[in-house]
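Lab notebook, design round three. We kept the backbone fixed and only want residue identities now. Task for the bench partner: fill in a sequence for the structure below.
Input structure tokens:
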């Protein structure tokens, strides 16, 4: 009986440590947040692609904890404003950082 309790305690401890390893920190996303950010990135890219004045191949989209960063080169300042506006309209986006440059 004592041996069974030791094994149970060991596996409970191992399981607890495994769950702690999946947790998020300020600089690292948890597994669920990573999936959420991937979905947001895909939605932002699709929204930019569906905007005829923007060239999606020249705009890079990265997301971390709901914050979207847009980078790359565009044809005009108006394109920058359009891309930022389109990204902000996507559900799940908390803020947008601009690192785009005019060619």
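Proposed sequence:
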């Amino acid at each position: 009986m004592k041996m069974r309790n030791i094994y149970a305690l060991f596996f409970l401890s191992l399981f607890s440590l495994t769950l702690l390893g999946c947790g998020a920190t300020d600089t690292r996303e948890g597994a669920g947040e990573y999936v959420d950010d991937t979905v947001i990135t895909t939605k932002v890219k699709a929204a930019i692609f569906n905007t005829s004045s923007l060239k999606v191949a020249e705009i890079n989209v990265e997301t971390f904890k709901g914050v979207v960063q847009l980078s790359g080169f565009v044809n005009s300042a108006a394109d920058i404003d359009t891309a930022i506006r389109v990204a902000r309209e996507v559900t799940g986006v908390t803020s947008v950082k601009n690192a785009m440059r005019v060619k």
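Keep this in mind before ordering anything: The chain has a mean pLDDT of 81.
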